[in-house]
Amino acid sequence: MLARLFRADAPSVHSHVAWEDLPDEALPTPPLRDGLGDAHLSVTTQVPLAQAYFDQGLRLLHLGWALEARRAFAEAARQDPTLAMAWWGLALARGVGQRFTADRAEAIRKALTLAEGTTDMEQRLIVAASLLADKGPANGRHAFVREMECLIDRFPQEPEPRLLLAGFLLDGYESDGRPGQGQPYAQLLLRDLLRTHPHHAGVHVAWVQAWLPSSRPEMALESAELLASLVPAGSPALLAAGRLLLRMGRAVEANRILEAAVTADDAYLARESLPLDVAPSADTALRLLSEGCVEVGQYRGAQVWARKLRQRVEASGGQPQAVLFAATTLVAAHLRFGFSRAAAEVPMDLGDAATVAEAGLRDAVRLYARGVCALETGRLGDVERACATLDALALTLSEAPRSEGRALCPRDVARTVEIAAQELRGTLDARRGDSGRAEAALTRALRLERRLRPVGPALFCRPPRETLARVRLRSGREEKALELALERAGERPGCGHCMLLVAEAHVACECMSEAAHDFAVVLDLWRDADPHLPGLQRARGFTARGGRSRAALRRVPDAAPVDTAHGPRGGAPTWTVHGG
């Protein structure tokens, strides 16, 4: 259906939320709300409240807030049972997948039954949606696009058909950077809408989503910055904006907008006394806040946000998937700063209700963290056994049946486990002095990482590209290591860890002036970092010695983990990668 608009960029923290299985007629009545934009589409009704609730559902549809859009469309249908477009909206908000096929079909059937006597635009929108309902998004794609193009041609001044078609066509980017089939067409539609309707919040949300997975996220920077004022109550839009700002290294702005998303969700829940798992964005925003602290060198701040997420998950009932996501957020922070023992000791008690995918991801995270611990203490046999067990676990998960909806899919988990196994094996081979085997394993990990589905679980191991770059540095392939480091830093320009790797690669290549520039960038990115961060001390040591030799990069022992800190303070503006 048109609910391709609701495709997730990341898996849901909660595998199930309140109301998801309720029939449309049983959904609780929502209040009319401000701060969601001003999208409007005139529909055939004599009931003002029905029009108001339909418009609210349309605005929420553009923001990607499916659950709340359903409530608004259901209330529009209650206010005017003859409103065909209310059932059209209910069909869209139900989402993709087999679970709700019957619900979508029934909603479209009611919309078609009530469509007689409505405007030409309404009838064409309903017919277009019915084409997808009959044939599915894959088989009905061509017919749907042709019907929407006809509608756009007939009503060239109306933004909603163009925006809905653009949302359907947003296909993202392939692993090699090429746009998906409908991506350029969608971007052309959106570019024209930005010109004709510069204050339409839904257009800016779609524009951010169009460029977020690309190599040029800066194309949507202006839209990301506008969304905080256009939709202050639309936390899914704020989440998308914060994600794009993080990609661009704008940590201060990203933190501010992600915190606003959490605040908006909390206000929404408090206003209606709703359960925590109904909040659409707060949990993911807390994960991103933790990741943002990691990038700007705030280990303690990353722990603060990860623990806030854990507390929120426990307060909402502690679903196994939510507990796991909260735990892996903290594990990722520990591993990024080299504290593998702390990562291995993070509690992940999922109880007896865990699915195959949840139990598999928990076991994989534990195995990987313990394997890294064993590697650091020289117990190479234990590392070999961890790799073999991870391989077996990935095979088992890949053969499990797929899951639908919000639940973790075993096959997606299998892909992340396979990457972790290859990354750990590559590091083990490098420790044994077999750089050829190490590079082969890490290259496989890198290729697998590029093919990960965006809706799968977050990768919990160290970034394979960075590990491969460090292996190449140790094996004398400095130029190749520098290429990888620059590529990685170009994707995460605000990440001090990536810039530190670029600086060390420049030192290995005897490019001291470039290294001095890079270390200056690291120091600025980490100006609010924890003071005992080893990489920060290396950067200061190099700068203090004027960058005259490799000796300035001598290793500093890792500091012990510190669990108490004030909240994070943000990061730094975007930097251009030297040599990129």
UniProtKB/TrEMBL annotation:
Record-given protein name: Tetratricopeptide repeat protein
InterPro entries: TPR-like_helical_dom_sf
PANTHER family linked to this entry: TPR DOMAIN-CONTAINING PROTEIN, WW DOMAIN-CONTAINING PROTEIN
Domain of life: Bacteria
Region (Disordered): 555-580
